Amino acid sequence: MTTPDPQKIQKAREVFFAHKGLPVDQIGHSILRSWIRCADMGLDERSLPRVDAPTASEIRLLHEKHEALRRISRPELDALYTEAREISGIVILTNAKGEILDAVGDAGFADKAAQVALRPGILWSEDGTGTNAIGTAIAERRAVVVNGGEHYFQSHQVLTCAATPIIDPRGAVIGVLDISAPATQQNGQVIGLVRMAVEQIEHRLFRGGFDGCQTLRFQTDPNLLGVAREGILVVKDGVIVAANRRGLSLIGRTWDGLDHMHVEEIFDTSAAHLASGRLKAQDGREFFAQFDGEATGTSQPVVPQQSLEDIELSSIRQALAAHGGNVSAAARHLGIHRSTIYRRIQDM
């Protein structure tokens, strides 16, 4: 991922905040949309954001309320801890509103981050904290990187942040995973790792099953069944009622279609005849499917649940193979830094 030019960002700020126009060619569109939203809310970029520091009791209640999200996300927080420390940053988990639940990483930066309110209990939504990776990821419902001067408030320009929303099986944002570091570090290239971590968290949300429903897991490659990169659709009475991002992407649909998509519209079979094995889509594509925990019906075994580290190594292997061993090209493809690949190569 290309690091934005600080001078270009500053020129965009001068144009936008002086009301001279919209710097559409100088700043990313997601950042510009956020600036517009913040301006419409009457936020003053020169002021200090209002911070309502929570009490220890309030933080404890916040943790108790979101214990399930904290527990299911803990493996990814631990896995990204090393990455965060190497860029002198911290890993942050928030709830759907943008309230920080946990922050772990470099101790030195954690102290500095606390000075700009990057600490448990503080709200980082756009309406209170302006353009920032957490709040903007919630507003945009997509992965966002905010570098230095791209933050709305001047006081936040010391930060660079990369965040991805955590979306539940019904399409609702339930939290955000973020890595924040000093602006001098330019950590935009870690967004690939944050995306993979969130994919793993979202995959774990389907472990318990759904009452009265059947779960279809499918992919074009049978080796991807059972891991976070598989597509998942939850079917009730022949209608798709829940899904993960990968599953919706594979069938070319969106969250808006839930409760309205019938299995027969997507696959060349009825809900009553869904079974593990080969599955043909209405457009002619073929998938390998595992239905309600049955065997796949093929000679390929279902791969057991993988850790974030396993997924990273697998993705790096595939990217290196696709680019003929070119580390730089593989890093660009994955959205991570070359140094991350070099570190992982030692474990391969």
From TrEMBL:
Domain of life per record: Bacteria
SUPFAM superfamilies tied to this protein: GAF domain-like (SSF55781), Homeodomain-like (SSF46689)
Domain GAF stretches: 103-203
Domain DNA binding HTH span(s) in chain numbering: 307-346
GO molecular function, one term: sequence-specific DNA binding
A family per Pfam: HTH_8
InterPro entries, A to Z: GAF, GAF-like_dom_sf, Homeodomain-like_sf, HTH_Fis
Name the record gives this protein: Fis family transcriptional regulator
